[in-house]
Amino acid sequence: MKKRSLFLAIAFIVSIFLLNACAGDDSSSGDGESGSDGDVGSITLYSPETPDLSKDLARKFEEVHGGEVNVHYAGTNVLVNQMMAEKDNPEADVWYGGGGILPFESAVDKDIITSYIPESAEDWEVVEDGIKMKHQDGYYVGTEMFVLGFSYNTDLVSEQEAPKTWDDLLDPKWEGKIQFPNPAASGTATLMVLSYMMQNGEEEGWDYFQKLADQSNSIPDSGSGPTKGAALGEAHVAVGFDFMTYEHKNNGESVDFVVPEQTPILVNPATLVKDGPNPEGGKKFMDFMLSEDAQQILADWYHIPINSEVDSQTPLSVDNLKENAVDLDIDWVNENYDRIRDEWKSKIE
Fold this sequence. Notes:
- The protein is of the alpha/beta class.
- The chain has 2 domains: 153 residues, Periplasmic binding protein-like II (D-Maltodextrin-Binding Protein, domain 2, 3-Layer(aba) Sandwich), CATH 3.40.190.10; 139 residues, D-Maltodextrin-Binding Protein, domain 2.
- 40% of the residues lie in helices and 17% in strands.
- The protein is built from 11 helices and 13 strands.
- Strands 1, 2, 3, 4, 7, 8, 9, 10, 11, 12 and 13 form an 11-stranded mixed β-sheet that branches. A two-stranded antiparallel sheet has the order 5-6.
- Helix 2 runs antiparallel to helix 10, helix 5 packs across helix 6 and helix 5 crosses helix 11.
């Protein structure tokens, strides 16, 4: 009887030990970091993209991987300034989106992002068909494609009449009927200006944009403002990104999009914030952004998915855009980005 009691006592002690060990294995490391058992923890996402889009991505990630994704929305410049201010104690783990690669290129020198490329993108070429797909040192990776082009109001302009090249915008028939965003305030418009100047030189570029300004009836600060103006009939033709037009078109508004013969086509990236509180969770979110789940969400919002397994919801795709892509000298862009924006204020009236 005593032997049995002793056996039961030992068994009880061993079971308590094993339970405590298991509990220790399952515990999270706390402070928002990923736990040792694969728990992704809490992830903070900074994004200037449409808030509902970013929230859709966050919800899908939580559904598939667990954890919690906190979305912080603000304009690209605001987010970059915030990351600079938080440099000694970063609060974000991932930064997604910014109207293309230009702000991410600039962020490398600001030392606010760090290198990470998801496994699914490791074999990508840095530049494919004139389009930079990822940073050469891994500081960002493209998640989707953006095309700079022309939206036009289909009640006011036929498909045949719509401009097909950037020089077509100077046709006298568009006088007082064009809108484009202000390069002093909009990254979308800065891209337009820099691209034209790279191809044609600064002297010809300034002459072109003075004439384009004279053609316009409004130059809004917002990158999406001109497309909205075209959808409302306030402009016949507007400059903007493709997805802006297709969102309006899907809402039943009379607008369509033209891809110019030679135009900037950029990936819109995601990147890992340097010294973020949850780097492992951030990497999982970066991986997720290239998954079919996330790419389908981007496609449903009329962005051009970079994953070939996901169909675009617009007439545009990675394959049918290659011939339209203009080669961008990223080093020249980085060197002249701020100067050109500042000179716009004094040169264009």
